[in-house]
Design a protein that fits this description.
The protein is α+β, with helices and mostly antiparallel strands. It has three helices and eleven strands.
Length: 173
Amino acid sequence: MTYISTIELFKEDMKFSAGHFTVFSATERERLHGHNFKVKASLSLQVSENGMAADYNVFKNKVRELCNSLDEYFLLPLHSPYLNIKEQAEQVEITHGEDQMLFYKKDIKLLPIANSTVEELARYLTEQLVADQSMIKKHKIHKVKISVASGEGQYASFKWSDKPNLLTGSINQ
């Protein structure tokens, strides 16, 4: 007998440290600061007749890889309507209202997100995980939910499903 089960992975090393600022409007934003972000992954997949869904290490390693790709960077949103981003030779200039900031390219990660928030980071990480369609198909994964916490008791989640109308996000504070 086969059935669907959900595995939840939240190991101590599934995390990343990054700087950011949240943009509230064309004139308001947070000051530059950072967090030790924690990541939790939930995957709903088919359990085979041997009572096992898959080797969890495959998924833990993939999440760790995604966390490592963001670790120790300043995260900047490419799709913010309130930021003007100009790439130069070795630097990136960011303009927000009257503020101009200059970053070295080696220190930042320009992400295809609208804001550097846990909501957008959860969506981004979920999309990166499910982009590996060979893994999704091989392990018969039906749903993925990634949660990103910026501190104790404050996180957001994004869900992917093989049924496209089930894309959702949630916030918990």
